[in-house]
Amino acid sequence: MTRLLTIADAVAAHARLTPRKVGARDSRRELDYAAWNERARRLAAGLLDGGLVKGDRVGVLAYNCLEWMEIYVGLARAGLVAVPINFRLTAPEVAYILEHAEAAAVIAGPEFTALIDGIRGEFPLPAGRCVVIGEAPAGWVAYEALIAGGDPARSFDPVTQDDTCALMYTSGTTGRPKGAIRSHGGSSLIAYATALEMGFTREDKGLLVMPLCHANSLYFGTTFIHLGATCVIDDRRSFDAEALVATLARDKVTFTSLVPTHYIMVLALPPEVKRRYDVSSVGKLLVSSAPVRKDTKLAILEYFRNGKLYELYGSTEHGWVTLLRPHEQIDKLGSVGREWAGSGAIRLLDEQGNEVPDGEVGELYSRTAYVFDGYWKNPEKTAEAFRGDWCSVGDMARRDADGYIWLVDRKSNMIITGGENVYPSEVESVIGAHPAVKDVAVIGVPHAKWGETVQAVVVLHDGQAASADALRAWCRERLAGFKCPTVVTFVADADMPRTATGKILHRLLRQRLAA
After folding, report:
1. Containing H/E element for 427?
2. Which biological process terms from the Gene Ontology are attached to this UniProt entry (predicted)?
3. Is residue 70 part of a domain?
4. CA-CA distance, 313 to 419, in Å (whole number)?
5. Which of 327, 364, 386, 411 has its CA 20 to 30 A from that of 63?
6. Among 158, 184, 210, where does a domain finish?
7. Of 161, 184, 207, the domain-final residue
């Protein structure tokens, strides 16, 4: 039987081969592979000794920090399932994920203990199942105490490639997030494909800037773990362009993945600041989540003079699907490239399931060796995502005569703002619940810094009044900040573009507002 290594197996292997090599670090401390392996084993033992059993789900809610790397590896060793939660979500959003995942335990940063305490009634946990990274308040177990009490020599049940390693909750097109089931085997295959396609080796140092609850950082982090390379964690609470380039220079980072907003902020640094730091070690750069202008790409390559630029398209469900390689960046500007190594193939299908000719728009399906295993407790959405072995997340695209893929509409009008995915239907459901609102459409509009920003177009009930500030405040109480509209526009009901059946035409609305 074929058996792929888990990340816990990989860390254990490197603990034997290169025990003193730094495997992971953040601004506070670093771990060599020997220490990483021992602490992960202790964490696994402590969690199982606390009553968890293989297959239990563990919610993880924290800012970027080195502990994420220990947690992912420790959960894999114990056969527990990570449920990474975006730290920007509100209490009701976090409560839904933990309840839906049937979380048996929670590991949280100290900033989030009050939030968890406030929603504990919605998902009762036995004593000792809430672990905090730092000093423990009442009702919590200290992370370091749990590790200190765990026996690294304990035996663990085997974990196979078919076992689940993570439930990755993606923003829901119907207002609720869905838990994408990721297996250990799929995680390993993504790592191998990434190393093969992008030429990573054990000598690389990857700076993980994107939140460690996101698939981007998890997939690249997994790649470096399998190779025995070094993961550098950007643990700042907010993006700091100068601090980023300082880290690149200090740690001689060879790779990082950023969204266009990050690159724009780096390039906007004063020349004297940029000259202060030597970023010549950076050999590979990735940009994802939004299109990049030609002048921005050229400026990136001018500043990172030894860097090769890549651009990809993928999803939590698919894994990587397409890649625009360094030599294609300008000639195929706006394209997301062609198939990624290991992605199998791509099909663009019409509503009847027939392939569309080159140049025409169809729904993008891919067949990858590392596709997700379905949505947790949601067989209907799982069935909708697949046509046989082919998977789709609803993105519309066209293919040119050279085989390059061009995205036309992302996930039913999804908005990407500063690298975060926002689904209009989720924001619309919140705004639509305001008593003064008769109807609402949420769209993404271009923004120089964030790529896109959220705009709400609102129709009020006759005789009702509500200000833009009031609606934004209403949203902030119920949604993560990045989902809240920065622009609120009021229109008459007759001015909202609709189909014959009354459905709002988001694309036409965007065109009208742009005009």
Report:
1. helix 424-432
2. fatty acid metabolic process
3. yes
4. 13
5. 411
6. 184
7. 184
How far apart (Å, rounded) are the C-alpha atoms in residues 392 and 383? 10
Instruction: Single out the residue of 418, 428, 361, 417 nearest to residue 394, CA to CA.
Output: 361
Q: How far apart are CA 133 and CA 135, in angstroms?
A: 7
Beta strand residue intervals within 368-511, DSSP E: 386-387, 390-391, 396-399, 405-409, 415-417, 420-422, 437-447, 451-460, 487-490
- The domain that contains 176 carries what CATH number? 3.40.50.980
CA 94, distance to chain mean position in Å, is 16
Q: Which two tokens stand for residue 102?
A: 């049937």
Q: Which domain holds residue 79?
A: 1-184
Cα–Cα nearest to 130, from 145, 121, 117, 144: 117
Amino acid at 46: G
Average pLDDT, consecutive stretches of 10 residues, N- to C-terminus, the chain (515 residues): 84 98 97 98 98 98 98 98 94 94 97 95 86 96 98 96 96 72 96 96 97 95 98 94 97 95 91 97 90 87 97 92 96 92 84 91 91 96 94 91 85 78 80 88 87 92 92 93 94 78 71 79
Structural domain count of the chain: 2
Report the alpha-carbon distance of residue 85 to residue 101 in Å, rounded: 11
